[in-house]
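Summary for the steering committee. The consortium agreed at its last meeting that each partner would contribute one worked example illustrating the joint modelling workflow. Our contribution is presented below. We chose a case with several input lines so that the handling of multiple components could be demonstrated. No manual editing was applied between input and output; the record is shown as generated.
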Amino acid sequence: SQQGEEDPQALSIQEGENATMNCSYKTSINNLQWYRQNSGRGLVHLILIRSNEREKHSGRLRVTLDTSKKSSSLLITASRAADTASYFCATGSSNTGKLIFGQGTTLQVKP
Amino acid sequence: EPEVTQTPSHQVTQMGQEVILRCVPISNHLYFYWYRQILGQKVEFLVSFYNNEISEKSEIFDDQFSVERPDGSNFTLKIRSTKLEDSAMYFCASSPTSGANEQFFGPGTRLTVL
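What follows is the complete predicted structure of the assembly.
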């Protein structure tokens, strides 16, 4: 079984539309994080939500967490062409900081 | 803005050779990590390091791998005898406080084993 599975695997939208990506996980967690990766580049941290939080906002990003369903969603509102990237959820379960990443969602925003 | 740096950006080596991948974490960070990403696959945790010792390692991190913080700034990953399947992008990350916080990733080193 896989920890941190995102869907959809790929998403293509027009600029200005909203993009929603989902992540499911299997074990209990301390926190869930979303990262962005532009093609061939490193990972950029977007937002962290703790297991006792249900929703968090940061600019155009909105993250929800449902620990009863072991799922999270990332909403990017009013998307821009520059949002084109891969988005990964990552779960943190231990105090050592180990993150378990999902397969990612590839988002394409067409101008 | 401080950032994690990694060198080299691309390393090509022959199978069986030793490689050392270098990272300079953000200066006041205390927790350090290595991850790898095989082309087209998910990012995989290799090892976490705190207070000059490994705090957790994955099954991938076998005795061919080692990490070291040789001085106050560098954090290295050594692969003793590289295999073809070690070809991947290797990311270093650091975190200021305990593992329950965001990690700052470097740009990665692309390792190609021939």
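The radius of gyration of chain A is 13 Å. The interface with chain B takes residues 4, 30-31, 33, 35, 41-45, 48, 50, 88, 90, 92, 94-104 of chain A (CB under 8 Å).
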